[in-house]
Amino acid sequence: MRKEYSCRLKTFKAVCIVLLYEKLAAEVEEGMRRGVFAVGERVPSVRQASTQYDVSIKTVLRAYALLESRGLLETRPQSGYFVREMPAAKAEPPTASQTPAVASTVDVSRLVLSTLRSIRSEDATPLGSPYPDPSLFPWRKINQLANAIARRHSSWNLIDDLPPGNPELIRQIARRYAENGVPVDPDEIVITVGATEAINLSLQAVAKPGDTVAVESPTYYAMLHAIERMGMRAIEVPTHSSEGIDIDALANIIGEHEISACMVMPNFQNPLGFVMSDANKKRLVALLATHEIPVIENDVYQELYFGDVRPSALKNFDKKGLVLHCASFSKSLTASYRIGWAMPGRFRRQVEKLKFLNTLTTPSVPQVAVADYLRQGGYDHHLRHVRRVYRQQARLMIATVLRFFPAGTQTSEPMGGYVLWVELPSSVDSMKLYKAALDRGITIGPGTMFSSRDAFRHFIRLNYSYPWNIQTEAALKTLGELADSMAGRRQHER
């Protein structure tokens, strides 16, 4: 009898240990998903965890071993246990648009303007914001440089920074491209008021009112704004969530329509977040070159990559000067100064002339301040921090969306940037969801903003650049509940 009791006691203790270390592993993993333990950081030592969680050292060792076997922790000799990059929750990416290609007029500005106005509310959770979290930018340092420059030059000579722009800033931009394997001619660079002006000037240089422009579907609404502003027509090309614009479909469209230009975002496309492969970039440039069609490349997120190296640009493969490359510092360094640039290839003189006719010049002090910051160094250190934050928060948002949103929800798998594209069940209307969320102090980007054809009505775009906290997680949970109720209500109505 005593022997039987002893065996049962040992079995009970063993079960307790299993339950304890699995529970501890679950708690530590939850902390990792919430961002308490960030990628690359050390988790509490075995002794610290033993005291903190009131368990034995043996239990802690088993819990950490379990997390290590799952690929969530790694052991570093003499240092302890560190958080590895967490595997993203498995999500099937949204499918490409498959509707027939039809050239159409563009009228999305009113919807976008009303959406952006709602995002300005200080009380709202900015999940729909198109802008990155400004708290991650070194704005104090850049403002100090700008103030010092303004004091030194009380009467600035405007002639110094007429198009193409401040010579030192142009040199720094060219140097940065060269350091990243993209040799450019500094004489090709034209400084603009953000990438938006670069895109507008480039489009104006290659097309005229009434012309048809090929765009991705979905596409970033700033592209549609430019087309709308100039009285042109857009023709949407199916775009895959990981491979980019469908080049075969584009070839067919070129054969059936007169296309004056093409506008694309091959790197970290907004809203899909993909990076086109080098093979597809070469194919796209070659196809357009064959037909002498210029392509406007929006590469505004070029520095916000999650991989080890910055991806190539279409500009890398341009042999005929048909790629008009547009970028800015607004998404990676400072949004308030709006310093952008264009490298327009064979259209350089026309873009420079249009810049002078449209806005005369880009403000001088911000140009010099950004040039000084780049010259002094620190930009790469800043970018490494931003990329690390965005990569971790992208994974957190994907996991949270798939946890709280209706069954059947799918997300993109961004490779850079700071936006997530979410496909909801087809019964959910993103505009109704937008309005319901706004009533609860939450903003989102409804999918209809990203098409000229009222497409993507059950899609939304979310911003994951802002701090991950209890408010963010609660907002996503509320958003998921709203979407779930809409999906359920439509199912009931049927």
Automatic annotation (TrEMBL):
Protein name: Transcriptional regulator, GntR family protein / Aspartate aminotransferase
PROSITE patterns registered for this protein in UniProt: HTH_GNTR
Classification via PANTHER family: HTH-TYPE TRANSCRIPTIONAL REGULATORY PROTEIN GABR, TRANSCRIPTIONAL REGULATORY PROTEIN
Keyword Transcription regulation: yes
Domain (HTH gntR-type) ranges: 18-86
Amino-acid biosynthesis recorded as keyword: no
Gene Ontology MF term list: DNA binding; DNA-binding transcription factor activity; pyridoxal phosphate binding; transaminase activity
Family statement: In the C-terminal section; belongs to the class-I pyridoxal-phosphate-dependent aminotransferase family.
Keywords attached to this entry: Aminotransferase, DNA-binding, Pyridoxal phosphate, Transcription, Transcription regulation, Transferase
InterPro entries: Aminotransferase_I/II_large, HTH_trans_reg/aminotransferase, PyrdxlP-dep_Trfase, PyrdxlP-dep_Trfase_major, PyrdxlP-dep_Trfase_small, Tscrpt_reg_HTH_GntR, WH-like_DNA-bd_sf, WH_DNA-bd_sf
A Pfam family: GntR
Segments traversing the membrane: none
